[in-house]
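Posting this for the archive.
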Amino acid sequence: MKLRESARGRIRLGELGEDRLLDHLLHRVSLGRAVAVGPSDDCAVVETQASRNFLVLKTDCVVEGVHFSPSANALDVGWKAMMRPLSDFAATSAVPQFALITLIAPEQTKVQWVKDLYRGLRQAAKRFEVSIVGGETSSTPGPISISASVVGFVERDRWVSRRDGKVGDDLFVTGQLGGALKQKHLRFIPRIVESRWLTKNFSIHAMMDLSDGLGADLPRLARASKVGFKIEMQNLPLTRGANIGNAISEGEDYELLFAISRRDGNRLEREWQKKFPKLPLTRIGSLSKPSTNNSQLLRGGYVHFQQPN
C-alpha cells in the first residue's frame, strides 16, 4: 500500500501493521556490498575480511504485557529473552557465540526479580555455549523490556534465508503447533541442533522460525521467495488440545518451517526419523506459483501494532 504524502502524517501504527511499517522504513536503507542478507530476514548475514564464514547478527526483545505477563517467573522470562534471537539463528542455520543484554525496568522493580532474570539468561546462554559479554541498563516508567543482541557465524555454504524457496518444493515443520501460549512459550528450545544437521546433509532452499504463527510467517517466506503456497490443513501437526485455528494463528511455537526439493524431501523423512526419533517432522504442503487465490491464503498469525481480526 503506497501512502499519499498528505496521509502519511495521520496514519497510525495500528492501521499499518508490522510488515507494512517495515516496508516503509527499510525501502531506502542502503546496504553495502558486504551484506549478504539485511533487514526483513531472520538474521543479518554479512561478510568480514579474511574469513571463510559469514558474520551473523540478530537482536530481539521481550516486553512485559506483550511477550510475558507481569506474574511470569523471572527465570523463565530470562530464558525466553535469550532463546528468541537464538531461534532466529536456527532459521539461518548459524552458530551463536556472543550476546549483549539490555534491561529497561522501572525503579520499583525488585532486585531479586532482576537476579532471577539474569539467572535465566545465563542458563539459556550456557545451553548453546553463548558468552554474555556486556549490555546496558536503563530506567523507565514501565513496562519492563529485555533486549538480547547475539553475534555468531555461519559457513558460506550453509547459510539459509527466506528467499530461495522454489515452486514445487515441499514444506516441512518441526515439532507440533498450537497451544504454546498455555504451555511452552517461556521454556522452548530453539532448533539449532536440528537446523545445523539439516544444512550439513541437505540443500535447504528457504527457512524461518515460527514465532508469529503459521498464518503470518508462511506468507512472509512465500513473499520473500516470490512464490505461492498450498497447505494441507489436515496434515498440520497439532499439540495435544490445540486445533487448526490455534496452529495457524497463535504463534510462539518457535519451530522451523522450511522448503526443500521434493526429491530430497522423501530421503529427509527417512533420515530424520533415525536422527531425531522424539521430534516429529511433518510435510504440510508445498510451494507453488504466485496466486491471488484467497483459498490458499492463511488468515491469522500475530502482527505487531495490529489488532487481531
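The chain has eight helices and eleven strands. Residues 74-92 form the longest helix (19 residues).
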